[in-house]
Each structure stands twice: as structure tokens, then as C-alpha cells.
Amino acid sequence: MTTATPAEAATSPDGPSHGAVGWRFGTVALAIAVAVGLLLGYGAGWLTPTLTRPGDTSAEAGFARDMTTHHTQAVQMALVAFKYGQDDGITQLGVDIATGQQGEIGIMQTWLRQWHLDPTGSEPRMAWMPDGEQFKREGGLMPGMATKEEMDKLEAARGHELDILFIDLMIKHHLGGIHMVDAILDQSDDPQVTEAAQRMKNTQQGEIDNMRSIRDRIQ
Fold this sequence. Notes:
By secondary structure, the chain is mainly α.
């Protein structure tokens, strides 16, 4: 039995097409990095306690709960892109988005524990957003989130097809996330929430610009 070399494994049609980034940053390493990002997010959340606690029906609590769900789908999409993408720029984005947003999930879940609130609240999803009812009428999905059919298609895609589909879905996802961030920035005066939300917006806008550049290059 012949053992494939690292170069052969990286290019094998039966194995993931990660390119140089994927080989350096294996699947196990990414899983560890995502877990570490979550733990670091928990730590960052504890470092910035609030003097007053948002209530169960507050915009801050709604944002933390809904953005956690929103980020969870982004992490899922990013891991698919890392594992099956063809372009090195796409696999690197998979790493960046999965680890970055998992860390932010940790921060938001820490807020809820600091505020003595449950991960799920008494209000309907998106009730904290002024235009939340609009999105409920559009299938119940939060802004920019992929449908089940879109997620199934992404998970079945490979190579260049996956790269393009991932970019299109993630740009839409990030734009929806920025819409949610803008909503909390308009409503909240909690410094830890607004500072974290602004960082999310800046990061996601930068990733959108990067994805558009990659799309122009590979389409």
C-alpha cells in the first residue's frame, strides 16, 4: 500500500481541495481554532461588564440572541468553504469568518449570562428590530440568512462552483448582518454592545470588499 505525499493528498480528487492555506491549516486545527475563538469571546465578554443590565425584552438582549443565530449559520457556511473551496482566498476567508464569528458568539453569550438572561427570550425573533415584522413576512429568516435550499446547495457544491456560491451567499449574509448591527447602533447606548457591534460592522464590510475582489478575479 502506497502512502500519498502531502502534495498528492492536497490535490487528490478524493480529498479536500484546500490549496496552500488548507494544507497549513488543517481541518483539526481549524476546529481547535474555532473552539479557542469561542473561549476567547467568553473571556472578552467578562472583561467589559455593564453597570446596568438590559432586560429580557431589550434591544440589546434581542440583538445578542438573534445575532448568535445569524453568526452560527455564517460559521457553518465558512467551514464548508474551508473544506471544499478551490481558491486559496476562499479557504482563507473560511478560516477568518469561522474563527472570528465564533469568538463574537462567545462575547454575546457572555453578555446574556452577565445580564442574568436566558439564551432564548420571551419575545419573538427580530421583535427588537423596528422592521423585524418585514422579515418575518419573508419566510421568518433574519436579514441575509440563507434558506435551507440554499444551504443544501452550498453543502453539495465543490471547487469553483462552491467558491462562487459561497461568495454570493456570504455577501448577502454579511449585508443582512450589517443591517442588524445598524439597528442596534441606533437603539443602544450600552458601550460594550455598541463597541462590539461597530467592530462587527467594520469586519464584515472589509470581508464584503474582499469577497467582491475575489469574485472579480475568479469568475
